[in-house]
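Session log. Operator J.P. requested a structure for one protein chain; no other inputs attached. Running the standard single-chain path with token output.
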Amino acid sequence: LGTWKSDPGDVGKAVTLGLELGYRHIDCAPAYSNEKEIGATFKEAFKGDLKREDVFVTSKLWNAKHQPEDVEPALRETLSDLGLDYLDLYLIHWPVHIDKEDDNKFIPLEEIPISETWKAMEECVDKGLVKDIGVSNFSVKKLKSLLETSRIHPAVNQVERHPYLQNPELLNFCKENNIHVTGYSPLGSTDRDPSFFFNTVDFPPILEEPVILGIAKKHSATPAQVLLRWALQCGTSTTPKSTKEHRLKENLETGTKFELDEEDMEAIEKLDKHMRYLDGTFWCVAEGSPYTVENIWDEEHLGVVTNPLKKKDEL
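Structure written below.
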């Protein structure tokens, strides 16, 4: 169950309901500004038959906490907010550094080697503060570099993934190196805020894609269920977010309600546009930022999809 963009007051209710329905993976982050509310929910939930060890909890290291000496304190703060003794998974949220004294000041990636941040993450495993560690929004290039220096290899790479952004090269690399892929925004981030989604607020909603609608009709399922089922059959996990009970139920039913056949999977494979809804532009627009969409994703050779709704002569 994803918790990004869940409003205060709603996220606690959604997590409570999700746990009651049977959700057992809760994806959190300090950047979502709701971990204390989720922590209060956990406190109540674990008073009954549900035990801490029954729930897989993920959180993330924020960009301003990449200095090695800041990693453990950041994790301990998250544990305090969530009311937990340990995390199941702790991820580096973005391969982007922010100055811890100034949120508008960006630090080049090479000035704080990810390998040094990672060593501090490994020490958190050694101390029992977290069971597994991983990354988010990492490219193949950045994963290769991390694998060369890490003592504990990343267990997970959490990235945007849906039929418009299938990224087979990344998926295959992760499978070959025993790195599990979790896909965020599996339904295409339907509530795209222009302050985050600079270039993509008008991108076509994947929930309205005719191919997905046709497959949904074929299986008497919702488009969201088709997208989630596709993710599962690709061998990935996913973190759909909802605060509505009927959506939470529908999403959870995806695991057992139906299977996509070979024809369905082939049709969905053809939808790939290598199109990101969350393209990272917000890290690139600040004056003096060393980051670009190309060097965040290491995809200079692929180019960047701007707006697929526009014709080439309009771009």
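Operator note: The longest helix spans residues 68-82.
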